[in-house]
Amino acid sequence: MRYVDSSVERLQVKATGFVEGRHVITCNGRRMPMTETGRASEAVAGVRFKAWQPASGLHPTIPVHAPLTFDLIDSWNGRSLGGCVYHVAHPGGRNYETKPVNSYEAEARRLARFQDHGHTPGRSRRRRRNAQLSFR
Prior knowledge:
Blueprint: E1 8-16, E2 23-27, E3 30-31, E4 35-36, E5 42-50, E6 68-74, E7 79-86, H1 103-111, E8 114-115, E9 122-123, E10 132-135
Antiparallel strand pairs: 1-5, 1-10, 2-3, 2-6, 4-5, 6-7, 7-8, 7-9
């Protein structure tokens, strides 16, 4: 029998327009190890995080990491170019009692958990082109 901790989740990040050595993507202030995909100016990374605190789990002393704050930093200019905040559940507290009726509703529910504000814009303490982020 294998014990599974459902409080741990994974999020994938894909950056297009990414220039290795110039762009840095951080999650909650930690640099993400971006890996090139084989396509020009495209890189991916994954982040595993504790989404919620169960009554009992594999790691009871590790705190919840959510919400996750992602920043895209231009290290050449020392500026945050943009970012977003990801919430494990709907940030407004909405609770869905039914399953989504189709893929469009499921996608809308996922997108509602991302906010384009709340990240750390402007000058960055780290000195690390307009890359774009997409999340799965």
